[in-house]
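Case study 2.
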Amino acid sequence: MSKHFCFCIPVRFAVFFFSLLSFLAAGASAALGWFIVYLINTNQLEKAETNLNDAQKKTFEDFVHKYKAGFIIAAVIFTLIALMSFFGFIGSIVRNRRMVKAYSYMTILIFVLGSAATGFSLYLTWSERSFCTTIDGTKTCLESHFSNGSKIGFTIGSIIQWLIDLYVVVAIRRYYEQLEEEREYRHDFRLKPTAGGTYEAKEGLMTEGHYPYSDNTNAFGSNQHA
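Prediction:
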């Protein structure tokens, strides 16, 4: 039986939509990260400094050179996220269980890391601690000037975003469980799969799935003989 999210939309569409969105966002972030690394390695940072004054250019160049390894790590991470999201996107189209499983695990990992980052952000917001960094011996600090109302608004927004992220993780996981159930159904009733590595749910991205026990061959009723 088809599982749903948002009350009536098949979870297959959730995987299709969120994996596509994740792929585009992570792909753009990875491209930006690798572009910055390329500019650093080729000494062409001026291409990214067109709207900066001389002081800002100096700060920007010092920052990217000091944290070059961080840009590389971030680019690698976003590249992996884009790759896993692509697996999820293709998996939602062809109903490939392994691809959707990989995407499901990735979203769980990202959710855990994102939850930790959200918790840290809330801690910094309410503790009013300064965030400081030192570049070429010069210490620069960013201080929180949020009012209590702003802090409450940020906290509420963070909680809502966390709940949405949790719901997305659950929806994707439910589609993987649906594919597992379809696989077990085929095994139990020895149905022939449509193609290697795919499972026939008879379900469109936005349409209700087919419930096999409603077939005449599987139903019990007036035609049953004693």
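Helices lie at 11-41, 54-66, 68-94, 97-127, 148-189.
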